[in-house]
Amino acid sequence: MKVEFAPLSLPLQRRLQTASVVQWVFSFLGLAQCCTAAFITLFFTRFWLVSALYAAWWFIDREKPSKGGRRIHTIRNSSIWRYMRDYFPITLVKTAELDPRQNYLMGFHPHGVLAAGAFLNFCTEASGFSTLFPGITPHLMMLSLWFRIPFFRDYLMSGGLVSSDKESASYVLQKPGGGNALAIIVGGAQEALDARPGSYTLLLKNRKGFVRLAIQHGTPLVPVFSFGENDLFEQVRNPKGSWLRQLQHRLQQIMGISLPLFHARGIFQYSFGLIPYRRPIYTVVGKPIPVQKKHRASEKEVDQVHQKYLNELSKLFEEHKAKYNIPEDSHLEFI
């Protein structure tokens, strides 16, 4: 006998969607600290052996974030990510085929405040990445310091996150047989300081490391633009030269991460809080840009590929902006 469940009511669906986003925001704002505290606290309890054994495992497994990570498909396919997808909602848009016999380097733009589109599209199956791009395994790079946090590192790797160092990138891009996509949020943490509604400023003009990496491995470059990524949060004004911006840059140099002062809505009210607004995100994956392999490319060759990438990214933005209600006079600005 087949048991059929009644569909969830709309109010309940919206509560589950909000709850899924709350846990996601918490995982980046507080889970790391909780994992560290739990690891240390356990040493002073009768469960000290848990931390001791984990520390031994951690040492043995220390290179894993730079060796492709360790994804857990049960977590990637969890229903909680589908509720998170529907909260905004988030849609992954395909514009060209990706040959599963090749590896790809995807440049993701913009960073936004918490990179919601990058996480949900590449670290979960909620938006159907594997269905849209069969035979392609996505990896998303994240600052290496996050993989130094006990327990939290395993949570990150379960979704397909890998550390953002050259060794880690090369490991993925040179995998034999192809079928891997390495996504890099090129603007990085610094770009998050300019993430606010209506902003189309990308920190990309002098970012050429990812281009050199693509040339070194002969890996096609794929521009990806996430429309709506910057619309999820408001941010305290921090114009260049202001004391706040100088403080944020100083903290970034010390800690390696940026600290944008952002706000949006609350859990039970809509006037103020740290929960993102319900605004749609459309992550558009462009067509691959062929890159000729060369072990030591000259600056001129790097500049040529870099300029071609900028042109293709701008073209992608211009071709799709009208569909997603971007004003006609809005254009990408590279700084």
Please explain how this structure is put together.
With 335 residues, the chain is α/β, with parallel strands linked by helices. It has a single domain, classed as Glycerol-3-phosphate (1)-acyltransferase, CATH 3.40.1130. It has helices at residues 10-29, 31-42, 48-60, 73-76, 79-87, 116-123, 129-132, 152-158, 166-173, 188-191, 209-217, 243-255, 299-320; strands spanning 90-94, 104-109, 137-142, 161-163, 180-185, 201-202, 221-227, 234-235, 262-263, 281-285, 333-334. Strands 1-10-7-2-5-3-4 form a seven-stranded mixed sheet, sandwiched between helices. A two-stranded parallel sheet has the order 6-11. It has a two-stranded antiparallel sheet with strand order 8-9. Helix 1 (10-29) crosses helix 5 (79-87) and helix 2 (31-42) packs across helix 3. The chain is globular and about 60 Å long.
CATH class: Alpha Beta
- Write down how many β-strands occur, each being a DSSP E stretch of 2 or more residues: 11
Using only C-alpha atoms, the radius of gyration works out to: 20 Å
> Helix count, per DSSP?
13
Mean pLDDT: 94
| Largest beta sheet: strand ordering | 1-10-7-2-5-3-4
Helices and strands, in N-to-C order?
HHHHHEEHHEHEHEHEHEEHEEHE
Report how far apart the termini are: 62 Å
Largest sheet: 7 strands, mixed
- Fraction in beta strands: 5-15%
CATH topology: Glycerol-3-phosphate (1)-acyltransferase
GO molecular function: 2-acylglycerol O-acyltransferase activity; diacylglycerol O-acyltransferase activity
Keywords: Acyltransferase, Endoplasmic reticulum, Lipid biosynthesis, Lipid metabolism, Membrane, Transferase, Transmembrane, Transmembrane helix
GO cellular component, one term: endoplasmic reticulum membrane
Organism: Buceros rhinoceros silvestris
